[in-house]
Amino acid sequence: MGSSVAENLCSEANDITVVDTDVERLQALQDRLDLRAVVGNGASPQVMRQAGAEDADLLVAVTASDQTNLCACRIAQTLYNLPTRIARLRSIDYADHPELLDDNNFAVDFSICPEQEVTDYLKRLIAFPEALQVLEFGKGRISMVAVRAVGGGPLVGRQIKALREHLPNIEARIAAIYRRDTAIIPDGDTVIEPGDEVFCLAATEHIRLVTAELRRLDKPMRRIMIAGGGNIGYRLASSLEQQYELKLIEHSRARAEFLSTHLHRTLVLAGDTTDEMLLEAENIDDMDLYLALTNDDENNIMSSLMAKRMGARRVVALINRRAYVDLVQAGAIDIAISPAQVSIGSLLAHVRRGDVVAVHSLRRGAAEALELVVHGDAKNSKVVGRRIEQIGLPDGAMIAAIVRRSEKPIKVEVSDVAVRETHDQVIMPHHDTVIESEDHIIVFCSNKRMVSRIERLFQVGFGFL
């Protein structure tokens, strides 16, 4: 997590100091990135002073220890009056007692829980079985889904502008296409080819119809097997066991006993996730989804490959090393997930300049999608009151969607029988769409190096109050 944060912030011309007790890991970071390293305990006042806490703008405490992270935030605020403090908290107990994080106690401005972020991410993937990535914007009003185009899809082999003919009453946008790992910013004449990784954007209630244009929709998940009963496996099982048939394999017998007493409708098995006989005995060939969620990358890769070979319909592996993610993605393993890349967005939303609501890492960190709130007026903003064609976005960036507050409620069809009302209007903008103050703008960046330019573009001037 710390390495991913450092890499993201270094690429945006920040001055970074990384504190860790592992000398070899720090040396490896310094070899790759332009940063300063300090060896020591991040919760030590002396080490914090050596790292430059007196002049720092931001502390990001993301060690594996909640206690260390909390102490670091308290020390940073008490001794050095460090302005912004972010802590990684793995335990769910602190969510039940938010008063512990205020300035009178541990002084945490923002807390992040990567395990919960990954759990929520996995739940969205389960809801969209054909998707490679599922992201939400505008408090859930807009969804962006990445899918692999498959021959036979109504839009595959045709120009993008045919989408409006197929779905005349639905506002949708193809935000980007990755073809053989090369980004393509599409226009209406772009032809979608089989194998393209396509990022679709639409109102959440319509996104399934849009993805159906690119491939046949997979049947819903029903039987799921989880390998690994750690924090993520346990959180996921407890949130899914009422809707799905779940089996969970845990190597530690003591942990398996704990899980069996705290999970009520999940079959918990004590055993090795790479045990071929165990997988066969538990009917791996009947599983709609196999999730490898242990702390061991090699174990997750091998067990996923084995599950796929033995007949599991779809396999997902949790992999911490990014080099491994790029290696196995889109092979026999359907989806490889990097926990750091999934959870980095919630942290970056607090680091970005301007009013950034959400940041999502795409294509395993190569691209980004941001949700920004526009403030001000035509005098102190570079975007308010201007048409999109007048804004001057950098090449490779596009305003993919706008969520605008409507005075009158809008009826939204959630399903064939359910309708709800909302004041958030989804707009798929064109070159002449005018940006209004308080709009939520979703910006797609094919290259994350342009993010800082976009942030400056959407910031208000000094005269804004």
How would you describe the overall organization of this protein?
The protein folds into four domains: 2-112, NAD(P)-binding Rossmann-like Domain (Rossmann fold); 117-211, Regulator of K+ conductance, C-terminal domain (Alpha-Beta Plaits); 229-339, 3-Layer(aba) Sandwich (Rossmann fold); 342-458, Regulator of K+ conductance, C-terminal domain (Alpha-Beta Plaits), CATH 3.30.70. 29% of the residues lie in helices and 27% in strands. The protein is built from 15 helices and 21 strands. The strands form five sheets. The chain has a six-stranded parallel β-sheet, with helices on both faces. A five-stranded antiparallel β-sheet has the order 6-7-10-8-9. Strands 17-18-21-19-20 form a five-stranded antiparallel β-sheet. A hairpin with a 4-residue loop joins β17 and β18 (367-373). α5 packs across α8 (231-240) and α5 crosses α13 (339-351). It is globular and about 60 Å long. It starts with a helix and ends in a 7-residue tail after the last helix. The mean pLDDT is 88.
